Amino acid sequence: MMAEIVLTPPESKKLIAKAIASLKEVKQALKSGYIVIKHGTTNAFVFKEITGEEPKPPYVCGIVTPDATCVDELGSASRINKGHSHYWVVEKGEILDNPNLEEIFGTLKKGDVFVSGANALDLFGNAAILIAAKNAGTFGKVYIQLTSSEVTHIIPASLEKVVFNPIQDIIKKLKLCEIKYAMGLPVRVLPLFGKVITEIEALRTIANVDVIQIAAGGVAGAYGAVVLGVMGDDREVEKILKVVEEVKGTQDYPVKISNCNTCLFKNLTYCFERGRYKW
User: Fold this and answer.
1) Helices (H), ranges, 52-148
2) Cα gap 141→145, rounded to integer Å
3) What number does CATH give the domain 11-198?
4) Is 179 helix (H, G, I), strand (E, B) or coil?
């Protein structure tokens, strides 16, 4: 049996979140360890699926808007006031309201789970995240610790993030070229190493099926949508259809784009502002 399904970006995010919450390593960490979730619109869904609770804002910090690479107003304020980006932390099933991130990151070990996000996914399955700070910011420091530990790193990345060029080629080109103009915050990319979960891996996690991507894109609210073909025994495909019905109609968590006149980062770098290019 084969079924063709259409998923918008928010629906894909919720589907991926459901699959991540069902992973054995995530269930085990929920019982006996830490689950640290980096802020992000996909990860807001991940937090809810894992904990059953609505995540508290800010949901994101860095964002891509129709005008520019930008920052969310609440997320950037959190970063300035607290000195670090926002993370959701769950310890042995308990949500921590004011976690000591430096202490927690220093104690993460095998059996714990870290969920990041991705802004780019190449055709070989390599993921990367955008960074604006030259030192890669808070995440760069965290990631150094992660790569030297046995923490399970999960990278949710919907297929709308797919890029044509290999991640390593993008990194090399950005290193070689000086960015003299940018619509918004100038960015570079940091490669990620971990377990990438796209819609395809998510569906394969939920049921014993094979999945192919048939098409991408759409109109009337389906911008960034994917069309997928799901193949398998009738019973397995029906499992998928049931979950797809649950995610249909999902809407994204809200973000508030920073006002250029009051942006907390406006003096740190050049930026796109009201149709003018500054550098």
Assistant:
1) 73-82, 101-107, 137-147
2) 7
3) 3.40.50
4) coil
Alpha helix segments (H runs only) across 63-211: 73-82, 101-107, 137-147, 167-176, 199-206
CB under 8 Å to 176, separation ≥6 — which residues?
A: none
Give buried/exposed letters for 233-265 (b at 16+ CB in 10 A, else e): eeebbebbeebbeebeebebbebbebebeebeb
Q: What pTM value is reported for the model?
A: 0.90
Strands 113-115 and 152-156: parallel
Dist. CA 123–CA 165, nearest whole Å: 8
Quick check: 275 pLDDT over 60?
Answer: no
Instruction: Determine the Cα–Cα distance for residues 256 and 56; give it in Å rounded to an integer.
Output: 14
Strand-pairing partners, residue 63, are 70
Q: What's the confidence (pLDDT) of residue 276?
A: 45
What is the rounded distance in angstroms from the CA atom of residue 39 to the CA atom of residue 88? 7
Name the DSSP letter for residue 45. Answer: H
Residues 74, 118, 194, 172: is their CA dihedral positive or negative?
Answer: negative
* Residue pointed to by tokens 């129709």: 66
Query: For residue 166, what are its two tokens?
Result: 């290999």
Contact yes or no for 64/257 (Cβ under 8 A): no
